[in-house]
């Protein structure tokens, strides 16, 4: 009986180790290079957090109505959560690399991996919310916005309900990222009565999509995950500047950080 229990424990440990190893950044690396990649993954998103806080406050200073305030608070909060969760997740990955016998760190990494990927869905939905709700996009804009958020939540559940990360889950997640990232933008481009800002909106989306090339190169190209982070940073910046220039102009009752 004890031998069977020991076998089950060993099998469970092996399965858990395989699951964790399959979804660790730079899994093909080892030694100093792998640690350097983990550090790069942390830094490339952690350094963006102060800028995101600045952007959040800047947008709030530009609001004139309660609707603008809550919509931009949602967008800024999701952007801040995206970078913060990513930085913490990669920090735990570094701890697992340095202390491979720490089982607690390994399970934290699995949970934070799920949170990290979930935040991407929520952030994409929050990026489109201001463009759908704060300008004239036709009579169905609010319904489209609701559909975007429903799809984002559905995507998170579809990816995480098995409670384990597999290659199929990863492919499903990337597919849903692309659907969530492209279709709402297509709707905005087709139905908006104000074309201002559409070019930077599309440019930011293109940066996210091109960055996926480096995401899939992980394990083959050194620091590819960190490079992907830089594309995410760039896409987020382009979208933020598009909002300040075309969507939320200077409030008449408040002062921008720029002046």
TrEMBL record:
InterPro entries: AdipoR/HlyIII-related. Keywords: Membrane, Metal-binding, Transmembrane, Transmembrane helix, Zinc. Its main location: membrane. Zn(2+) binds at residues 90, 225, 229. It is a multi-pass membrane protein. The keyword Membrane applies. The chain crosses the membrane at residues 69-99, 147-165, 171-191, 198-217. Pfam families: HlyIII (PF03006). This is Uncharacterized protein. It is found in: Membrane. GO terms for molecular function: metal ion binding. Belongs to the ADIPOR family. GO terms for cellular component: membrane.
């Amino acid at each position: 009986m004890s031998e069977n229990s020991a076998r089950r424990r060993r099998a469970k440990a092996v399965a858990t180790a395989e699951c964790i190893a399959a979804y660790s950044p730079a899994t093909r690396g080892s030694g100093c290079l792998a640690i350097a990649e983990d550090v790069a993954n942390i830094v490339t998103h952690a350094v963006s957090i102060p800028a995101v806080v600045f952007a959040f406050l800047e947008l709030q200073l530009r609001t004139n109505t309660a609707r603008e305030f809550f919509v931009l608070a949602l967008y800024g909060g999701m952007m801040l959560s995206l970078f913060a969760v990513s930085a913490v997740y990669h920090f735990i990955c570094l701890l697992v690399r340095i202390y491979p016998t720490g089982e607690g760190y390994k399970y934290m990494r699995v949970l934070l991996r799920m949170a990290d990927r979930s935040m991407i869905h929520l952030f994409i939905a929050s990026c489109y919310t201001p463009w759908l709700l704060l300008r004239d996009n036709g009579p169905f804009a609010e319904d489209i916005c609701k559909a975007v958020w429903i799809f984002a939540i559905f995507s998170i559940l579809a990816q995480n309900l098995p409670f384990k990360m597999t290659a199929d889950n990863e492919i499903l997640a990337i597919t849903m990222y692309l659907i969530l990232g492209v279709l709402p933008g297509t709707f905005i481009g087709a139905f908006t009565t104000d074309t201002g800002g559409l070019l930077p909106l599309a440019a930011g989306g293109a940066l996210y999509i091109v960055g996926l090339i480096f995401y899939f190169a992980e394990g083959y190209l050194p620091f590819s995950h960190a490079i992907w982070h830089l594309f995410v940073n760039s896409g987020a910046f382009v979208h933020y500047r598009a909002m300040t220039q075309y969507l939320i102009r200077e409030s008449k009752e408040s002062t921008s950080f720029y002046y």
